[in-house]
Amino acid sequence: MSHILMIVTGANSLTLADGTEHPTGFWAEELVVAHRDLTRAGHTITLATPGGVRPTVDAGSLAESTAGEKTAELTSYLVSIDDVLAVPTVLADVHPGGFDAVVIPGGHGPMTDLAFDDVTASILKAADDAGTIIAPFCHGPAALLSTRTDSGFTFAGRRLTVFTDDEERQGGTGENTPWFVEDELRKAGAIIQSGPAWSSHVVIDGNLISGQNPQSSAAVTAAVVEALAARG
């Protein structure tokens, strides 16, 4: 079966527009669904973070007001993979040529670290050059911005979806958001194709498979599984 690199944010806060710190990390549903469904499909996952720091789950993603009846299930799964979360692979030690897909779940954390991380940029550029499946979703596409330089953007002209500016204003960090991922990706040259707010929506453009929000977690993961199967 396939070997998948899961890049997870190591950040635990986001500096908001007013200068205050917003506790964050990875979004539980996104990491859990992707990790669980890819593992069940028989694939091997290497979970890596910048510096190999233990990733922090966004507490809001496990609140009953957010996760509802899924809270216990999500918490249980995170406990079951605690040994993996406790000692993730150091992202700088990763050789992208050894992977069939790169999966990037969100949470606001990627806006703090992955979006500006040179190692993430190097991995994504190499993966895209090789035609490796790249699957960021929700705020995960912020990581694509790491490849933006004065000479261009690796994913310019590519179709993708991401947590929309409207969703950020409705149920994210609102007008206090320091920068909007959708807006920045558009400025960089990506072609954003959004579905209705809070609905499952996946966009596939060659090796790039993206999902819009937490509700898209299962669909984007299924698309990755299907794409890997098609490659044999």
Automatic annotation (TrEMBL):
CDD domains: GATase1_Hsp31_like. GO terms for biological process: methylglyoxal catabolic process to D-lactate via S-lactoyl-glutathione; proteolysis. Gene3D superfamilies: 3.40.50.880. Residues 28-226 form the DJ-1/PfpI domain. Keywords: Glutamine amidotransferase, Hydrolase, Lyase, Protease, Stress response, Transferase. One of its GO terms (molecular function) is transferase activity. Signal peptide: none annotated. GO terms for cellular component: cytoplasm. Belongs to the peptidase C56 family. HSP31-like subfamily. PANTHER family: GLUTATHIONE-INDEPENDENT GLYOXALASE HSP31-RELATED, PROTEIN/NUCLEIC ACID DEGLYCASE DJ-1-RELATED. This is Putative intracellular protease/amidase. The lineage of its organism: Bacteria, Bacillati, Actinomycetota, Actinomycetes, Micrococcales.
